[in-house]
Amino acid sequence: MLAKNLISEQTYNKALVKLIMANYKTIFVDPSILMWALEEYQLAPTPEVIRLFQLYAGPDCSEDFAIRAMAQLTRTVWLNITLPQSRHLVLDLILRTLTTGRSASTLKKFAGVIRSVLRLYPPALSDILGTLQLWTRTRETGDARNV
Hints:
Number of strands: 0
Shape: globular
Distance between the termini: 40 Å
């Protein structure tokens, strides 16, 4: 229906979020829908946003697929959201999603993909890799924040 322009993209996205909130299992949610949800809910980690991100958590979603999708979303966030605090809130949600139900090596793989995706945007790459380094250190030391 969306491809034939029978409904708007916003109507489609809202309907998809409602299905997911009703525990409808979907195979794929494009990262652009995650970005739409972030914008729709003013970058707040609402139940809808969290539920959409959970679709990419392990072990139900393959690690490689989640890493590629979250890297694409990270790039979109860094290029479209101007406030650093907001970008880092979203990055925190992305990293929590990637590490849920997966090993610590997921962050290393994510770092490799991010290097490739953001190689032409060094300020963003440096910022993201710094945050990844902190996350890795926190996980290795078993910080009580439950990251």
